[in-house]
Amino acid sequence: MDEFVHPLTGRYASLAMRRLFSQAARIGLWRRLWLELMRAERDLGVEIPPEALAQLEAHLEPTEAEIARASEIERDTRHDVMAHIRTLAEVAPAAGPYLHLGATSCYVTDNADLVVLRQAIDLLIGRATAVVAALAEFARTHRGLPCLGHTHFQPAQPTTVGKRACLWLADLLGDLERLEAERARLLLRGAKGTTGTQASFLQLLGDGSKVRELDRRIAAAFGFPGSYPVTGQTSPRKPEFYLLACLSGIAQSAHKFASDIRLLAGLKELDEPFGEGQVGSSAMPYKRNPMHCERITSLARYLISLEPNAAWTAASQWLERTLDDSANRRLTLPEAFLTADAILLLWRSVAEGLEVHPAMVRRNLEEELPFMASEEILLAAAARGGDRQKLHERLRVLSREAGSRVKEGGERNPLLELVASDPAFRLDAERLAELLDAGRFVGRAPEQVSDFLADSVEPWLASHRARADDEEPQV
User: Fold this and answer.
1) How far apart are CA 218 and CA 210, in angstroms?
2) Secondary structure class of 148 (helix, strand, coil)
3) CATH class of segment(s) 23-98
4) Domain 374-435 has what CATH class?
5) Would you give the distance in Å from CA 458 to the centre of its chain?
6) pLDDT score at 231
7) d(Cα 120, Cα 460) in Å, to the nearest integer?
8) What distance in Å separates the CA atoms of residue 284 and residue 271, rounded to the nearest whole number?
């Protein structure tokens, strides 16, 4: 029987993100945490022989055999941390008596989680920066291409293809600013003891200032500005909710982008990338389904659903500790970051390969533009001596007639011909054509694109380009 492979690890997420949440990486962090604890305790007065540190330093990377041995011990102990302590003591016997001295399990489990979360955030920011760059290039290229706007998915005042892309960009930049802010607030749990009082470390070191220094040194060893000043046995769970809220925001923005592309593909104005040998449908060979955008919306829906899970974990903490969050967090945190990783890889591949079909963009716009030009027609006809109120009523009647003809299968919108043939308006076809220049109806959209890219997007890219994703995007 084949071994089960989770879709996120076997199909969607990247190798880099999978490695961050792998068992080997997790146990490797535990061993580094034990090493830094032992070093700090020695420097602060605990008698620990040099050989203990040397042996521990030589076994920071767990082997497959050691991980298997820990699993064997865990079947008896029913305790994963103790199983790995005993396994490490077997290969580093000089370190065994000093491993985990004064600590509780959350010293390694929660501190390691915080290190991994910060690394995962950095990876996602690199992924998202590549998406920002791709969308910015798309917006710049199509800043002035007029297209039909939509409200309620009904024809509305024209905009430009580039301006529409800026809406996607603005959402994503807002998400990333919040994610970076939460990253900056992340601290280490540090060495807090069984209920957060540091009583065991005070007994071990005999001096409160040394306990504070122990906490500081461990945080500094892992590049954190400090540790949370007060905790129970665990690290606080609210920061995890704040992070998942940021990931949910990214998922919401990705869902909006992918949904828009799906709608525009149905209008034949835009297409996501489509491989030369790609099959759209097993039954309909002509189909070109937006499968990547459909996958984005599917994954985004799942990621959005994980945010309230983290909220319930934060809300359900009992006094100084409860264990009913353990199995839940082992699922929720990795899956949230693996899903966000998969979404951003897909988003980048779609954004870099978007195909615009200007002829269809123009055709769809021209089909509705006569209706959009109603005010222009009224003003021009009134300037030639017409009664504005009578013209308004006449134009209303002609517009309804034109709309009915279109819905009955007419090839094109006949409003201009109806207006030109109506003596009340005194407007010939040439003058009406001048009024229908699409550029007259997009307002400041092209300038808005240029201003937004210059004022908001380029500064972000300039400060993050070094972290931009260089991994091959999913296709």
Assistant:
1) 12
2) strand
3) mainly alpha
4) mainly alpha
5) 19
6) 94
7) 20
8) 18
Q: CATH 1.10.275.10: which residues of the chain?
A: 23-98
Of 363, 374, 379, which is closest to residue 398 (Cα–Cα)?
A: 374
User: Are the C-beta atoms of residues 92 and 59 closer than 8 Å to each other?
Assistant: yes
Question: CB–CB of 273/353 below 8 Å?
Answer: yes
Where in the sequence of the chain do the CATH 1.10.40.30 domains occur? Answer: 374-435
pLDDT for residue 342 is more than 50: yes
Distance from C-alpha of 191 to C-alpha of 205, rounded to nearest angstrom: 12
Fold of 107-185+234-276+298-358+450-467: Fumarase C; Chain A, domain 2 (1.20.200)
410-429: string of b/e by CB count within 10 Å (b at 16+)? eeebbbbebbbebeebebee
Helix or strand or coil: residue 149? strand
Q: Extract the tokens encoding 428.
A: 């010939």
User: Hey, which residues are catalytic here?
Assistant: 152, 281
Cα–Cα dist 406/436, whole Å: 18
As given in the structure block, the two tokens for residue 369 are 């533009």
Task: Give the whole-angstrom CA distance, residue 137 versus residue 139.
Answer: 5
Q: How is residue 352 written in tokens?
A: 């870099």
Q: What does the alpha-carbon distance between residue 413 and residue 432 come to, in Å, rounded to a whole number? A: 14
Cα 1 to Cα 186: distance, rounded to the nearest angstrom: 43
Tell me the two tokens of residue 398: 């002609």
* The amino acid at 435: L
Output the pLDDT for position 287: 53
3: left (phi over 0), alpha (psi -120 to 50) or beta: beta
Which one is predicted more confidently, 2 or 233? 233
Parallel, antiparallel or unpaired: strands 270-271 and 355-356: antiparallel
Contacts of 146 (CB under 8 A, 6+ apart): 158, 159, 160, 361, 362, 365, 438, 439, 441, 442
pTM as predicted? 0.89
Encode pLDDT of 218-261 as tens digits: 999 999 999 999 999 999 999 999 999 999 999 999 999 999 99
Letter string b/e over residues 144-168, b meaning 16 or more CB atoms within 10 A of that residue's CB: bbbbbbbeeeebeebbbbbbbbbeb
